[in-house]
Amino acid sequence: MTRLLLIDDDEELCAELREVLEAEGFKVDIALDGLEGLRYLHKEQYQIIILDLKLPKLNGYGVLKSIRKTVNPLKVLVLSGRPLGEPLLKEDGVSLDEEDQILHMADLVINKPFMVENFIQKVKALALSIKEI
Questions:
Q1: N or C: which end of the chain has fewer CB within 10 A?
Q2: pLDDT at 85
Q3: Peptide bond into 73 cis (omega under 30)
Q4: How would you list the strands of the sheet with 27-31, edge to edge?
Q5: The dihedral of CA 64, 131, 114, 103: what is its sign?
Q6: How far is CA 74 from the centre of its chain?
Q7: What are the φ/ψ torsions at residue 71 (nearest 5 degrees)?
Q8: Closest-CA residue to 122 (of 1, 40, 4, 30)
Q9: What does the pLDDT read at residue 89?
Q10: What is the pTM assigned to this prediction?
Q11: Would you call 77 helix, strand, or coil by DSSP?
């Protein structure tokens, strides 16, 4: 069974995604902020991380940098509420160059809102790519 960690502060979205992912045979844990997500990563072994970029306590950019420094070969699917390439907001605290570097560390990026069926296909593709290694 593929273990998956979903890091997103939208509790309703997390509950919905957990339900559909578990129906597809994934084991799903949820973290509602970046620091909680890193704590999970240090305690458990996951194959796939689903990561929102805008998180409390530690944003998704910081989480992704930390993941790539310490934990491999995780697959990371980034959820972005802002289409990539659009101007960054001041509160994002990341330059376009930094965003480009960080997002190249992700295996996939999906913009919110997304169709759940498309999301599930992407997660299944990541799971298959792990099993092929």
A1: C
A2: 54
A3: yes
A4: 27-31, 3-7, 48-52, 75-80, 108-111
A5: positive
A6: 11
A7: -120, 120
A8: 4
A9: 47
A10: 0.87
A11: strand
4's tokens: 């998956």
Could you give the 3-state DSSP secondary structure of residue 108?
strand
Residue type, 59: N
Whose tokens are 């799971």? That residue is: 127
Q: Which helix (H) or strand (E) holds 81?
A: none
Tens of pLDDT along 37-54?
Answer: 999 999 999 999 999 988
The single-letter code of the amino acid at 58 is L
- 103 close to 76: Cβ distance less than 8 angstroms: no
Q: Residue 100: which residues within 8 A CB-CB, separation 6 or more?
A: none
Number of Cβ atoms within 10 Å of the Cβ of 120:
16
Query: What average pLDDT score do residues 9-16 get?
Result: 95
